[in-house]
Design a protein that fits this description.
Elements: E1 11-13, H1 14-21, H2 25-34, E2 41-44, E3 47-51, H3 52-61, H4 63-71, H5 75-80
């Protein structure tokens, strides 16, 4: 049996989210370390998982954050400009 594709999953790993949404690995991991809870996060045995529908909603409602997560620019540096 073939593994389901990310497009078919409701819950994905952080690495799957990075690849699927073409995000910066370093910036996403840094952001997830800084944020303790978010509507799109689920925890399973100490691992952070992404609820895909909620994450897509987060990216839609926060286009500036999507830009930061995609291109790896520092959130603090961007706000100072």
């Amino acid at each position: 049996m073939a593994r389901p594709s990310v497009a078919d999953k409701d819950v994905i790993t952080v690495d799957e989210a990075i690849d699927f949404y073409h995000l910066s690995k370093f910036t996403v991991r840094k952001y997830l370390r800084e944020v303790e809870t978010a509507d799109f996060l689920a925890f399973y045995r100490g691992r952070k998982l992404i609820l895909k529908a909620e994450f897509e909603k987060f990216l839609r409602e926060n286009p500036e954050m999507k830009e930061v997560l995609m291109h790896g620019k520092s959130w603090q540096r961007r706000n100072q400009a």
